[in-house]
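Ticket #4471: structure export looks truncated?
Reporter: QA, pipeline team
Priority: medium

Steps to reproduce: submit the single chain below to the structure queue and open the exported record.
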Amino acid sequence: MIPFDFQPRTRIVFGPDTIQELGNLASELGARRALVVSDPGVIKAGHTQTGLDVLNAAGIETFLFDGVKENPSTDNVNEGVKVAQRHEIELIIGLGGGSAMDCAKGINFIFSNGGEMKDYWGVGKALKEMLPLIAVPTTAGTGSEAQSFALISDSKTHVKMACGDKKASCRVAVLDPKLTVSQPASITALTGIDAIAHALETFVTTKRNSCSMAFSREAWRLLAGNFAKVLDNPTNLEARGSMQLGACFAGMAIENSMLGATHALANPLTTHYGIAHGQAVAVMLPHVIRYNGQVHADWYQELLQVDDESNDYPPASEGVEGLANFITQLAQKAGLATNLTQLSVDKEKVEELAEHAATQWTGTFNPREVGKTELAYLYSLAF
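Actual output as written to the record:
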């Protein structure tokens, strides 16, 4: 028997055209002035304007903050806070990918509690209640809409800070798969492989429990069975919906069991080489699966036994090696690099990368212990 504390705080509204409900959902929260946090790509696609129009039609005054960058920084958050303070907002809406949702949460931390982002680095450091937050994800990747953490990079040190507090959880997540159809193929690839990693990592962490594993299993079934379909046919709305819902369920699994060594290894690659997070995950995940599988092969095989008549993943008989190879094949199909040499990472920097990876919180939840030595070994396998 494994004890756990499941604290569901987010209402999930899923289905095509659910963005049209955004005004009603915001009104139910009693807000009349909303800050909409979005990024240039989503704005260009027209999704942000759709959200603004729906909110305005419901009588809600809106103010747009479009200063979101990939891997949002403390500078981005501070700029957003200024807009929020200027207009005395009552609601925050993160409309976009993981970066927009993280930035929206970061703004909420400081607007509601004051101080600086680093003051909330860790867990449970916010003393005051926060504004209601609605997430409208336009990608199927991070699952940020189902998590109470904001990942914000320090603008000076470039260190990525995980700032978590249950009060930062979204009140509502609006999952409209139509919003994901317009994303570039590269974004579909990067976010999709990241979501798959979330399903796999959460299933084997030291904090895994009955609740998290239920979300991990369903996330894996939805994601692994539909990623290739979305790559082959980007307009397949059924597959898009499965990917978006799978990413959300994987986010709920993270909230209840955390992540592992793959993400600890990926973050330094982004920090030191500017490698996109999903790309770094794609390279490192197969090696972590094999490493963990030496001790916990039965856990991975359990996922491969999840029934789905349309699944494309390998049979349980292929075990850990089959699963690791499957991830590499998906990365190749998505047009992603599958080793660090392709990404121009210097072999001589492995020890430095490992030292940084050893400081990452997620590594402490890996089912096999990983310190600097083990992390350096995993990096070396990826060349």
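Status: closed, not a bug. The export was complete when the record was re-opened. Leaving a note from the reviewer for reference: The beta strands are 11-14, 33-37, 61-65, 91-96, 122-123, 133-137, 149-153, 160-164, 172-175.
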